[in-house]
Amino acid sequence: MKDLLDKRLVVVTGKGGVGKSTVALALGVKAAEQGKRTIVCEVASQERISHAFHRGNVGFAESELGPSLYGISIDPDEAMREYVLLSLKVKAMRDLLFRSKLFTYLAAATPGLKELVTIGKVWELALDERKVKGGKPYDLVILDAPATGHGVGFLQTPRTFANVARVGPIATQAETLHRFITNHRKTGVAIVALPEEMPVNETAMLERDLTRTVGVGVDRIFLNGLYPERFSPADDEALEAGLGKAQGPARDAIGAALAVSRRSASQRDQLGRLESLTRAPVTTLPFLFEPEIDIEWLRELAAVV
Amino acid sequence: MTSVPELARGKRVLICAGPGGVGKTTTSAAIAAGMAAKGLKVAVLTIDPAKRLADSLGLPELGNVERQVDPALFTEAGIEPGDGELWAMMLDSKATFDEVVTKHAPDEETRDAVLSNRIYIELSSALAGSQEYMAMEKLFEIWSEDRYDLLVLDTPPSRNALDFLEAPNRLLQFIEGRSLQVFLAPTGFAAKVAGRGTSMMFSILRRITGVDLLQDLSEFFGSFSGMVSGFRERAAKVNELLSDEHSTFVVVCGPQSETIEEAAYFRGKLAEQGLPFGGAIVNKVHHAGGALPDDAPADLRRHLGDDLGDRVAANYEDYRRLAERDRANIARLGEKLGTDAVIEVPYLDQDVHDLAGLMEVNRHLFGDA
User: Fold this and answer.
1) pLDDT above 50 for A298
2) Domain boundaries, chain B
3) For chain A, what is the domain count?
4) Which residues on A lie below 8 Å from B313 (Cβ)?
5) Does A223 fall in a domain?
């Protein structure tokens, strides 16, 4: 695990519903346990961090979640505001800008700008010397990236902006961000996947797009929700035979055992496919039989990520 | 418990909405395949760039036009669809946006100005709501051609199902920002009217963005302003179609409390906007009987031996806890939705990746299980 948590920024990505937030938080818990000053960033106000840590909304402030562990929910409007504050030193100019309808409108309407300032905030958090007044540096920043339903668009925003803007402050800033996320010494990427046929195919495509199109290095693939191997092939035969004889609740229990066993076998086929289709090493994470995610579970998961 | 044929009765458009990662694409494909198997001419539109639907229907690639799924696949899966046909299309959001611009541009000059604008080319896919709106646009277009008995729309893989409903307004607000043109035009009458404050604003903005970007943005917003009325009329028609009595929204979700909450919230928003709600489909549900009675462990040991019997009993307890969670969540969903039109699809032992798999899902969706 040394490779991934020794980066300055780790981007956790993958399709919706695969457990990205859980993995990002578990990585955060693990890094903090190693004594690293760590912050987990979520975007699009999901407030999953608040949920898992039973706290009030984390919001745009860097909130302490535990020893060495912090969380932030990056709101693009706040990030935009901060960007302007940091770029315009003259207060009168800033005030004029913030009061202006035109600015508000442009900030909201310019396509991709929200993504750009969000990545900008992540970069700021990862700086050795923070730009924000009184900001202390972090050893590790973990980004729970938006779902990749729209392809690799999010991580590609800086380069796209650099191309569109050509010259000027935004172009310079966008180039800095692009260089930062493609600097494999500093930035690592982890993809979270599920052990099912189509998610595995999509993960292979995502890895290819991230490395070829965006130019980031993919360090790790987490295969989430792997059922335990509770029953051997010999067990399965005994279960099949038992199913014919048993009745009532015993029969239900044997049926459930067979279902888990079949799922587990098909998941292991998918694990094999994933390993053959992707280049990054695959780490498996166990299926959660507990009803909902909490901090205890995160600690357990932190031990295996 | 209800079934898809009941939800789809008398409907021409069925929209599958829901949060990401709940199997919307598979559900949409299964519904379309099932209705085709019942003899209807059905088209399913999907937006997923991951070509999931293409995979599942054995189509090499779908492109921005409908393609018919080989009837032989139905025969192979043991189905005799009669007059039924299954067509599928994967939406190319950018190509649709180009078509829309071409349609609404007042003249060729405006059209070319938009289509060649670098911000449009590079960033229009990042425009909030554009993918969602383009899905509706394509739906409307195909519906207008009146070639199918039923259209099934698989909504884009947003994190939030609500993005879909908000898309037309977001895009319209964006296009209607006519005042921008006045402010952004750096010279001429408009600048004079806008006065000194604006030129000051402009110079401050330039400090942040750079000259080129501001120029491109100005052209980008400016060229769109000529298309406002066209877009608005079209959006109104699209909305008419969505709220029509022959359309219905089906919410797809999983049994976890998060996706259940989102489904319930979405249903509320549908009601607010006067859009028709059909029911909910809950995927990947764990089913189990009641707790094991006292004599069951002994029973299991007798049938399976001590070791295996104990492991089966322990496994069942885990499984039952999941099933109980799912049952409680689904009951809560039913209450929140105020309907018993909730269809459950169990967590199947095998993945769905072909027509036979879709028809297996349909045993549950169509109530033949």
Assistant:
1) yes
2) 4-176+246-365
3) 1
4) 253
5) yes
- Contact call for A150 and B216, based on CB within 8 A: no
**A294 within a domain of the structure (yes/no):** yes
**How far apart are alpha carbons A195 and A201 in whole angstroms?**
10
Region B4-176+246-365: CATH code: 3.40.50.300
- Alpha carbon B77 to its chain's center: 27
* A224 in B contact zone (CB under 8 Å): no
Flag whether residue A106 sits within 8 Å of chain B, measured between CB atoms. yes
Q: Which of A87, A111, A230 sits opposite B315 (nearest CB)?
A: A230
Structure tokens at A190: 């982890």
Q: Which of B127, B59, B67, B116 lies closest to B93 in space, CA to CA? A: B127
The whole-number mean pLDDT for each consecutive block of 10 residues of chain B, a chain of 369 residues, reads: 90 90 86 95 79 64 81 86 90 88 89 88 75 88 96 78 76 65 50 56 76 76 77 87 95 88 88 93 89 90 94 93 92 92 87 81 86
Element at B203 (helix H, strand E): helix B196-209
Q: Quick one: which of B255, B239, B259, B235 has its CA closest to B247? A: B239
* Contact list, A289 vs chain B (CB under 8 Å): 318-319, 321-322
**CATH code for the domain in which residue A159 is found:** 3.40.50.300
Question: Between B216, B290, B293, which is nearest A164 by CB?
Answer: B216
Of B138, B183, B133, B123, nearest in space to B156 by CA: B133
pLDDT digit string, tens, across residues A110-152: 778 888 999 999 999 999 999 998 999 999 999 999 876 555 7
Give the integer Cα–Cα distance in Å for B46 and B15. Answer: 11
For the cut 90, the answer to whether the pLDDT of residue A215 exceeds it is: yes
Between chains, do A230 and B311 touch, taking CB under 8 Å as contact? yes
A110/B120 Cα distance (integer angstroms): 10
Q: Does the beta-carbon distance from B48 to A263 stay under 8 Å?
A: no
Give the position of tokens 């913030």: A98
